Amino acid sequence: MRGCSSFGSHCNCTRGQPNTDGIHVTDTQNIQISSSVIGTGDDCISIVSGTQNLQATGITCGPGHGISIGSLGSGNSEAHVSDITVNGATLSGTTNGVRIKTWPGGSGSASNIKFQNIEMHNVKNPIIIDQKYCDGDKPCKSQSRAVQVQNVLYQNIKGTSSSSEAIQLDCSDKFPCQGIVLQDIDIEIGGEKQPKLCATMPK
């Protein structure tokens, strides 16, 4: 699909719907999502392989699992996502905030991604890159390939975390994250001014 716009959507899929994404975008180019209120049992917005040039603005998310790119690369598949901007969002009581998740063993890339001007209220995992995503208990089975995550900007993200880890960057040992920028991040944990940072980055 090319050239699609969604304005003023309201989605409430929370009751008895544990695996329901609010808006799911795949194999689509030139997309605009704006002024949307989403509560769900899974991702408020999920952006998966084949998505290019997506703009999401004025998003209200919660409850749910936040705004996710991925999962990408399941079953050793190739996946590509690029030129994604989430600008202006409020997340309340969600499991995650803004997340990129890729499976070990996949290939391809997630690149040129911006998360800007976002408010979070009592979000469990505000900022996550997880290149070791898998079903079941971790650690995942070691793989020789990974989806490359590169050129990601987190800018002006503020609010509160309900867990002790406000930022988690869990990157692949063989295909580490590249070009990750965090700017003007102010996330409080239990009233503390500075967030605790969990960053698993290869040396």
From TrEMBL:
Q: Which residues cross the membrane?
A: none
Report the GO molecular function annotations.
Answer: polygalacturonase activity
Q: What is annotated as the active site?
A: 65
UniProt entry keywords in alphabetical sequence = Cell wall, Cell wall biogenesis/degradation, Glycosidase, Hydrolase, Secreted
Question: Mind listing the GO biological process terms from this record?
Answer: carbohydrate metabolic process; cell wall organization
SMART domains reported for this sequence:
PbH1 (SM00710)
Pfam families from the UniProt entry: Glyco_hydro_28
Family stated for the protein in its record:
Belongs to the glycosyl hydrolase 28 family.
What protein does this entry describe?
Polygalacturonase
Q: Which organism is it from?
A: Vitis vinifera
Q: Which gene encodes it?
A: PGLR_4
